[in-house]
Amino acid sequence: MSVNSHNQEAAKTREQVKKERKVNEEKPRARRIRIRLIPIWLRIIIVAALIVISAIAGAAVGYGVMGDGDAKDIFKKSTWTHIIDLVEKE
């Protein structure tokens, strides 16, 4: 089989594929309904919860380990007022 005849066969095959696609497009497609394992509203709640947990964990590590304080003190209002006063001090 020569290269030229092989290219002609490939061209025929491409033309056949194009014809088949046209025939398939004429048929009405059945819409595939996607069922999500986790609904979008639940994903948003999970992401928000993970952000809150990450912020609390970051504050605990930052204040407890790096700041040589007690990690439980991040839940006290006096700790946060002290931190805000330090940041806003001119």
TrEMBL record:
Q: Which UniProt keywords apply?
A: DNA-directed RNA polymerase, Membrane, Transcription, Transmembrane, Transmembrane helix
Location of the region described as Disordered in the Swiss-Prot/TrEMBL record:
1-25
What Pfam families does the entry give? EpuA
Tell me what organism the protein belongs to.
Bacillus mesophilum
The protein in question is named DNA-directed RNA polymerase subunit beta
Question: Which InterPro entries would you find in this protein's record?
Answer: RNApol_su_b/EpuA
Q: Give TM segment ranges.
A: 40-66
Q: Where is the composition biased (Basic and acidic residues)?
A: 9-25
* GO CC terms, sorted: DNA-directed RNA polymerase complex
